[in-house]
């Protein structure tokens, strides 16, 4: 995996809805590059809002449908200029760090889950959440029923934390069908082999089972039968006396 330099700026915004108690929000901007790749993104409160797609040559807003449309005039052109500065700094950093071993921390957490509640046959998104690693980035790959999947996959830029480790999220568009098995595998320089997590549609979206209901029904019937038998002998006993 090629070395990547990540430069980021972080500022804190203070806003208040009614002019009384201020609410703290964190506005994050990240610009990163390597010899063959680059990334530029904006986030608010650890949620990605916008990124530069250098392959398509445009800026892309990553916001849920209910959010009002936003614009960022000149954002993509600024991101392209940032890449030139980043690659220049990368050359300087490489010459400065030559011969110094790079600290490597493997991912401490790898979780896979669906964005929305699972409904068979309905479009959804699988999320592979990787955190606690250094340096960035990680390489994420997906499989469906043992076959590698690339269509409908995406990955965001790494999020730095205050303790100098990173978090990165990969997504897979999918339509859940009962019995399908998905996997998310992560590669990192600190790992001797990929870390993998499995997500099973059948296990994560179990179908309603009649087992517990039948069990409770039988138990209730036996309980009522026992009460009836006990009452019968109690009455007989009283008659005999």
Automatic annotation (TrEMBL):
Membrane-spanning parts: 212-235
Key word Membrane present: yes
Subcellular location per the Swiss-Prot or TrEMBL entry: Membrane
Protein name, per record: Ig-like domain-containing protein
InterPro entries per the UniProt record, alphabetical: Ig-like_dom, Ig-like_dom_sf, Ig-like_fold, Ig/MHC_CS, Ig_C1-set, MHC/Immunoglobulin, MHC_I/II-like_Ag-recog, MHC_II_a/b_N
Keywords: Adaptive immunity, Disulfide bond, Glycoprotein, Immunity, Immunoglobulin domain, Membrane, MHC II, Signal, Transmembrane, Transmembrane helix
Secretion signal, residue range per the UniProt entry: 1-19
Protein topology in the membrane: Single-pass type I membrane protein
NADP keyword on record: no
Gene3D superfamilies named among the record's database cross-references: Class II Histocompatibility Antigen, M Beta Chain, Chain B, domain 1, Immunoglobulins
Recorded family membership: Belongs to the MHC class II family.
Domain Ig-like: 107-188
The organism's place on the tree of life at top rank: Eukaryota
């Amino acid at each position: 995996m090629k070395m990547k330099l990540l430069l980021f700026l972080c500022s804190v915004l203070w806003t208040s809805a009614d002019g009384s108690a201020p609410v703290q929000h964190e506005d994050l901007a990240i610009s990163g590059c390597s010899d063959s790749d680059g990334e530029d993104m904006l986030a608010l409160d650890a949620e990605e809002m916008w990124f530069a797609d250098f392959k398509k040559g445009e800026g892309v807003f990553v916001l849920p449908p209910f959010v009002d449309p936003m614009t960022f005039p000149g954002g993509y052109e600024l991101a392209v200029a940032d890449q030139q500065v980043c690659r220049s700094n990368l050359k300087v950093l490489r010459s400065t760090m030559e011969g110094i071993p790079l600290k490597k921390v493997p991912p401490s957490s790898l979780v896979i889950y669906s964005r929305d509640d699972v409904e068979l046959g309905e479009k959804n998104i699988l999320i592979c959440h990787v955190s606690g690693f250094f340096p960035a980035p990680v390489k994420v790959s997906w499989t469906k029923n043992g076959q590698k999947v690339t269509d409908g996959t995406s990955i965001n830029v790494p999020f730095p934390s205050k303790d100098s480790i990173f978090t990165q999220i990969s997504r897979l568009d999918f339509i859940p069908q009962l019995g399908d098995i998905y996997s998310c595998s992560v590669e990192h320089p600190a790992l001797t082999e990929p870390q993998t997590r499995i997500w099973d549609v059948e296990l994560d979206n179990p179908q309603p089972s009649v087992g517990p209901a039948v069990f409770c029904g039988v138990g209730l019937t036996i309980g009522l039968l026992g009460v009836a038998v006990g009452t019968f002998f109690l009455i007989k006993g009283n008659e005999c006396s």
